[in-house]
Write a structure and sequence with these properties.
The chain is an alpha+beta fold and 319 residues long. It has 8 helices and 12 strands.
């Protein structure tokens, strides 16, 4: 059986930033005085340690570019422009053991939300490079769909430049182009390589995105189970073929309340190592066809062809 071996870091770093017209000094005291919220006790206990550093920065000392932070959703574009133009920032850094995840990054993001609310600022995730939704409170339950992956669709039809046929109108349209490449930005903070899927035709972009999301959720579930065994090794070996199911897709969203017309069948993806920090997701080795043939077939569970946002019921709110 083919396998993949990748390095597992002992610690990971995650960073969030808050842009505001005026970021006051004494951010640690500001957090301690902020109104009660999920993870408040964790924030107070970690402040000042490597697991939760809060600093005030301006354009003279930045080692990152605010202009690289983008809007993941159209409704966030105005906030992204304001963030790009800002000159003062609060930066929250979490440098924590990989075994402390996801709690470590949840605490850090909760601190960023609290600062944003206190100063009327705009929060962003510097790992994904995306603006965070305004007026959000970090929920206590970890849900990967809560903007942890930087998982967004590219412009459909390559911003109008792609003229390949639609599969419904022309059978050759199934493989009419190879415009789409999707890559996660966020798995590394949990001690995993990022994953990507390549050579996807424009009409199959959503199915490809959901394959990536489902694969990420399964990899993360298995990774945390492995870490719970207290392994001494700093590398991990996994099968190159990964069996996925509808439950993995549901787990990504944090919901189990989807309605199925027929019982969903498991499906398999093939993983290969592009670099030690990047894996490629593709059809399994025994699939006779292209990645687009695979995405267009009836192999995938229901919902993966049409669900972009949280399916079925709303995700639960924070306690």
């Amino acid at each position: 059986m083919a396998t993949i071996t990748f390095p597992v870091p002992s610690t990971t770093t995650s960073r969030f930033a808050v842009a505001a017209e005026c970021v006051p000094p004494g951010l640690a005291d500001l957090l301690r005085r902020s109104k009660p919220a999920p993870f408040q006790a964790h924030i107070a206990g970690r402040l000042g340690s490597s697991q939760l550093q809060v600093t005030r920065e301006d354009l003279r000392c930045l080692r990152w570019d605010p202009g690289r932070v983008k809007a993941a959703r159209p409704e966030d574009r105005q906030a992204a422009r304001a963030f790009n133009d800002a000159t003062e920032f609060a930066v929250v850094t979490a440098f924590a053991p990989v075994t402390d995840q996801p709690r470590g990054v949840q605490v850090a993001r909760s601190a960023a939300y609290a600062i944003a609310e206190a100063v009327g600022g705009i929060a962003a995730d510097l790992v994904t490079g995306h603006i965070l939704s305004p007026s959000t409170t970090e929920r206590t339950r970890f849900v990967l769909a809560d903007h942890w992956l930087g998982d967004v669709l590219p412009p459909y039809r390559a911003n109008g430049h792609c003229t390949a046929a639609e599969p419904e109108l022309d059978p050759e349209g199934v493989n009419g182009c190879a415009c789409v490449r999707l890559r996660t930005r966020g798995l590394r903070r949990f001690g995993l390589p990022e994953i990507e899927i390549n050579d996807v035709a424009c009409p199959h972009d959503l199915a490809a995105l959901n394959v990536l999301r489902t694969t990420a959720r399964r990899l993360l579930t298995d990774h945390w189970a492995w870490l719970a065994t207290g392994p001494a090794a700093r590398t991990r070996t996994i099968p190159a073929d990964l069996d996925l199911a509808q439950s993995d897709f549901n787990d990504f969203w944090g919901t189990t309340r989807r309605v199925h017309i027929t019982p969903p069948a498991p499906f398999r993806v093939g993983l290969s190592m592009q670099t030690p920090r990047l894996l490629t997701v593709a059809p399994p080795a025994d699939f006779d066809g292209t990645v687009n043939d695979w995405l267009w077939s009836d192999t995938l569970p229901l919902g993966m062809y049409d669900v972009l946002e949280s399916p079925a019921d709303p995700l639960p709110t924070a306690a």
